[in-house]
């Protein structure tokens, strides 16, 4: 499958700030270099206690990081759907119908308003409940129907993150590899640097070495130097 990214309008769903860079950072760089439009729909963010060197990050800090990353990748727009601790790491408590309506029509960059040609979502096998809730809600929003009545993106992809492999059952390897140039990988790595509250040293799923190693592995599987792996959910030729 060959894609002319210059003709595409990408809409990426990120459960939290940094998921879009971890999963699609290379593609965002490649697509923008080609002339594509790129939009990011964040689902939620809140104050977070984690295992980073700092140990704690606030929602305000995360919003500041988003602005820096947006400028770095030259996003055309982004939106935070459900900010606050009532939703952060609790999206599984929000009725799917409400998440689906937001994704389908209510967000300023909803599918109905933006009419993207490519939609990218987290993989539903993630152990993280917010990732699962986002993946399932987008899946519902993109349900088959009459294309004369509802917009259907031509290409729907699930992106991968290193931690997605933490499952009791086997996880299929990506069936689509997007070839990256070194500058695309460097853009991805720098994007994660700008998420300073979320970066970690190796060994960690968000370390620079992990991201580079996964890119080398996916590239090798396609016979190229560097790549990013995706699962094809819909491809309308």
TrEMBL record:
Broad enzyme group: hydrolase
This enzyme's EC code(s): 3.5.1.-
GO terms assigned for molecular function: hydrolase activity
Sorted UniProt keywords: Hydrolase, Zinc
Name of the protein in its database record: PIG-L family deacetylase
């Amino acid at each position: 499958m060959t894609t002319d990214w210059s003709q595409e309008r990408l809409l990426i769903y990120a459960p939290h700030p940094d998921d879009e860079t971890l999963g699609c950072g290379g593609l965002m760089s490649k697509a923008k270099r080609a002339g594509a439009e790129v939009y990011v729909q964040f689902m939620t963010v809140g104050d977070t206690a984690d295992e980073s060197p700092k140990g704690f990050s606030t929602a305000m800090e995360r919003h500041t990081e988003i602005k820096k990353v947006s400028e770095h990748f030259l996003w055309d727009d982004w939106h935070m759907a459900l900010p606050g601790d009532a939703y952060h790491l609790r999206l599984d408590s929000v009725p799917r119908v409400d998440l689906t309506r937001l994704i389908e029509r209510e967000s300023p960059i909803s599918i109905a308003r933006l009419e993207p040609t490519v939609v990218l979502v987290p993989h539903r096998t993630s152990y993280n409940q917010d990732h699962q809730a986002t993946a399932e809600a987008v899946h519902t929003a993109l349900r088959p129907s009459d294309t004369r009545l509802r917009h259907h993106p031509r290409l729907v992809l699930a992106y991968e993150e290193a931690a997605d492999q933490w499952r009791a059952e086997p996880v299929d390897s990506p069936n689509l590899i997007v070839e990256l140039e070194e500058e695309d990988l460097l853009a991805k790595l720098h994007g994660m640097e700008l998420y300073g509250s979320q970066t970690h040293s190796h060994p960690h799923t968000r370390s620079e070495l992990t991201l580079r190693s996964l890119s080398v592995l996916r590239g090798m599987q396609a016979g190229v130097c560097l790549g990013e792996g995706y699962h094809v959910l819909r491809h309308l030729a």
